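Lab notebook, bench 4. Continuing the backlog of folding jobs that were queued last week. Each job is logged with the same field layout so the records can be merged later without manual cleanup. Today's entry covers Diaminopimelate decarboxylase, a 462-residue chain. Filled in by technician R.K.

JOB TYPE: sequence-to-structure
TARGET: Diaminopimelate decarboxylase
LENGTH: 462
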Amino acid sequence: MAAYTGDTDRAGEAPDAAASDGGARRDEAVRAAVEQGLVGPTTPIIGLLDITGIRTSAAALHAAFDAVAAPGTPVLHAFAVKATPLVPVLRLLHEQGIGAEVASAGELALARAAGVPPSRTVLDSPAKTPAELREALALGIAVNADNPQELARIDGLVQSAATRSPLGLRVNPQVGGGSIEALSTATATSKFGVALRDEGAREWVVRAYLDRPWLTRLHAHSGSQGMSLELMARGVAETYGLAEEINARAGRRQIDTLDIGGGLPVNFASDAQTPTYAQYARLLAETVPGLFDGRYGLVTEFGRSLLAKHGVVLARVEYTKTAGGRAIAVTHAGVQVAARTVYAPASWPLRVGAYDAKGRPKAGTEVVQDVAGPACFAGDLLAQGRAMPLLEQGDYAAALDTGAYYFAHHYAYNSLPRPGIYGFGPGAEGGVRFAVVRAPQSLEEIVAESGGAHAEALTGTL
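JOB STATUS: finished
OUTPUT FIELD FOLLOWS
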């Protein structure tokens, strides 16, 4: 299977049209995956990524901020690698003008393997090691310090070796959380950044900048799934106000770039891509007009919103049964690919599409049923009590909106293998063309990463 390259899609089409096009592309890809043997009895689960959809999202992000920023404003959109840590995805986004926001040595290695240059890479993490900081500073990668101890560590590093890295500090504006507590990063007790409303913290931050002329960026990330756009904008406004205060007290434009994070929530209820980047950018322009007047460069760190709508986990129905009068479809997609959904279904519900054995969308009377995974515990359910066309043995269940995080959080319960992932797009002569993004994990690889090379380690001389 050759790597796919094709024309960019229509960035300016109406959201309903984009949703309709995305659904049609998905249906065509599912049917083609079955017909071409990518999925079937011997390969009962795969992941699919819509290349055209990803390009469309990247173009929409650029267009949204270009529409509100003063001409010539430097804007770096850095994809949060944690959302989909796959080198071909990072390379595709890089070719669409999207950089990388990394939070570990591993994510930085992925970004570098994808060809993302240091000048378009940002390192954020609450637990950066000295080695990670030294590498970033040597490469010239932008670094946002998370806390006073880390800033003190950077003090020593910049004194011992010159660096081209833009350096900043992450603050927590403490504007409140959203509906998913575990993802809320701007609460009073969040582990991220310097808590601005704690006693003495704001003055400490100002003084930290005044004492360090090389600190030129200010970073905050208030967004997440479950957060309202208004609360996200309030966090950006608080950060902007702090930057203005620091620059006023410095008597110069010391802070020249604001990193406003990402966290645009995703609609998991339908194909509609809402809220949009354009809506968020317009709200920011109304709430914080000075943000876009050209005095500050901007960095964003969107992840989920760029990829979620463009991924599908497709799993074969191995068996069907009934229990307590309810139909149950036992599939090969469960906790190993959808841990958040299985363990927190109220916060992370997924739509599940029903396809027949030939990969065609199923119609007919809806039946209340459970869509179960292969893992050995009762709660391994993609969907519970869901009304949908009845799934039968040999059919396919498609977990939709899984392009972000669902390909990142493999959970090796029962030593279930990581599924292969394939990008899809239009073929040169019609139809669907697939490209390998990540090969399926082999049984040999499972044994190797489970200590297979050290089988005698505990039965020897100990």
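OBSERVATION: The longest strand covers residues 311-323.
SIGNED: R.K.
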